[in-house]
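Structure in, sequence out. Go:
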C-alpha cells in the first residue's frame, strides 16, 4: 500500500499477530516500518453497502446523497454522474477504483465531504 494515497479518515486493514483489524488514519505521522502492516481494504459489495452505495441494477451501485453512481467492470469500479435534469450520464475519468480508501478520496474530491459509514 502506498502511504502517499492515504488521507486522515481513510480506512485500512492492519495485520498484527495473525489477526486483521480495520483502522482509520488519524495522523500522517507513521514511520515507514508501520506502513508495512497496512493493507488496502478491497471494495466489495459489503463495503459498498456500508458506504451508502446501494444496488440499483446488475453491476451498478448508487448513493442517495448525490447523483454519483458506480459501475463494476472487469478491473474495478468506475464512477459516473447521473443528471436528474435530462437523465444523461457523465463518466468521470479515473483509474479503476479497487479499494475503500480510493473511493473515500475520490468522493471527497468530488463533493468536499467525507464518505460516511452506516
Amino acid at each position: 500500500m502506498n502511504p502517499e494515497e492515504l488521507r486522515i479518515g481513510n480506512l485500512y486493514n492492519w495485520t498484527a499477530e495473525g489477526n486483521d483489524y480495520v483502522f482509520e488514519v488519524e495522523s500522517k505521522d507513521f514511520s515507514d516500518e508501520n506502513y508495512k502492516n497496512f493493507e488496502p481494504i478491497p471494495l466489495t459489495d459489503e463495503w459498498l453497502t456500508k458506504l451508502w452505495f446501494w444496488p440499483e441494477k446488475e453491476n451498478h451501485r448508487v448513493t442517495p446523497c448525490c447523483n454519483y453512481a458506480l459501475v463494476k467492470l472487469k478491473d474495478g469500479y468506475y464512477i459516473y454522474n447521473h443528471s436528474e435534469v435530462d437523465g444523461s450520464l457523465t463518466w468521470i475519468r479515473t483509474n479503476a477504483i479497487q479499494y475503500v480508501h480510493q473511493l473515500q478520496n475520490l468522493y471527497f474530491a468530488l463533493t468536499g465531504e467525507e464518505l460516511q459509514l452506516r
